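step 4 of 6: structure.
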Amino acid sequence: MDLQIALLLGQDGITNGAIYALLALALVLVFAVTRVIFIPQGEFVAFGALTLAGLQAGRLPGTIWLLLALGTAIALVEGSRALRDRNFRRLPMILLVNCGVPLLLAGTLFALSPASLPLPVQVLLALMLVVPLGPMIYRLAYQPIAEASVLALLIVSVAVHVTLIGLGLLFFGAEGSRTLSFTDISFELGDILVQGQTLLVVVASLMLIVALYFFFERTIYGKALRATAMNRTGARLMGISGSLAGMLSFTLAAAIGALSGILISPITTIYYDSGFLIGLKGFVGAIIGGLASYPVAAAGAILVGLLESFSSFWASAFKEVIVFTSIIPVLVWRSLKTRHVEEE
Amino acid sequence: MSGLAAAGERVVVLEVSELSVSYGKIEALHGLALKVHRGEIVTVIGPNGAGKTTLLCALMGLLPAGGEIVYLGERQGPGRSVERLVRQGMTLVPEKRELFAEMSVEDNLLLGAFDRYRAGHRDHLETMDQVFDVFPRLMERRQQLAGTLSGGERQMLAMGRALMAKPRLLLLDEPSLGLAPLIIREIFRTVAELRKTGVAILLVEQNARAALHVADYGYVLETGELSLEGPSRDLASDPRVIESYLGLGGRN
């Protein structure tokens, strides 16, 4: 290996690592706030990428049907609860938010031809289709058992993951897709050729991380999420309900996932099940941070990206093995370092 | 802050009757009835394990309860929840304080106004200044992490955070717990001063002497039932209360 190859691998590793870092942050956030180990995180990457690809190919993305179905299901659940509590005033709002908005979105897709729209509008449409799935899945799958054990929540996560993979195959087919490049610029930096798209991934990831930092440190909703992670009862007594915090964290996680997918789909071909492996590598990063520390999780995820790209050079057949085995020393070190605390 | 409610007009904030709470088959509270008026401090005293904390948790909606609870003239139905009660101005300062330990004093206070902020009020900075007037110590410590505060300061922060919600009914669970006598006196003086703001206070205490000293009306809770009630001055001179809860040696 010479320096040039090392630089290329490093560039590759950092690009992927930036995406893993975003996913790791989302996983830590969701776990800290709701105690859910969010295995379907990766599916949002695939859904984001493939929905955008579908829009660009002039197809109607299947995501819209899922959005309509989940919206209807929530409207039924919430509506029957409102009827039982004789709270009729809430009904119009429930219908508008859960059925009206998805219908409006579907109407927009039918009326416009998304393939001819400018790229930023396509991205926006894709986000509007994918991001609401996050809080909707929380509402239907997790909120009814929000007080259950971490293990029960994990089992639900596995179920949601398998369902989304299946739906992904149904919606997008077995073929992979790439989306159009955001930029075709490329330039020489020293010895290596840097693609504009690669740089965009890193810069956008960094900007997102900074934005998340500001959200958590400067806004009252961000602080409310941190408060819920620290002390659930205390937060509840302030009127920060578990469902509000859950919806908010799942919205963020879905947005981070979908954006990650949209960012990498011009440089990697994404299949309906690609998200799982990508999400799992973010998960390794999150584990390095103990599912608790944001900076360590992000750093760990970048390490995972580098480890992956270098091992693909030296032992490409064992690439995934090396990445996932790296979790073992981390776990050993963690279990030696921390005392076991009984779960409440 | 508004002045004292006119002496003649006694607005009932909370009225409870036949309240019962069970943990499975064990009944922790049975047939309780109590009333709290606007601008009034009502105390519930009683020994450890009598069900005092259970009472407050049930009122706040943290525990399911039987019987009738009328809050601000509205009978609490099946849709009762902590979040809804918070929106209607009921605030609990729990026994364990439940602060956000890794956040600054200022952020803890800010989150006290979370629900008001969410409801569209943007007066949290003014309210915070008022809280700093009540607890100047919090002003000095505003950048410090809540987890690093002393016991007295934590209690002040828990109460300050509750005041950020501009409550109409403040439920205080053992504010004296684990505090030094001098701090207890300071906390209770603050509680007495809060009465002027018109807030109704339900104070649950094991420290009967301090609680009866500050309260207008008192109840004695023993093994899940109210055994005595009356204006706190009468209770403080009641031989049964003196024997069981006040003892001979004066603490304050």
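step 5 of 6: annotate
 - The longest helix of chain A spans residues 3-34.
 - Chain A has a mean pLDDT of 91.
step 6 of 6: archive
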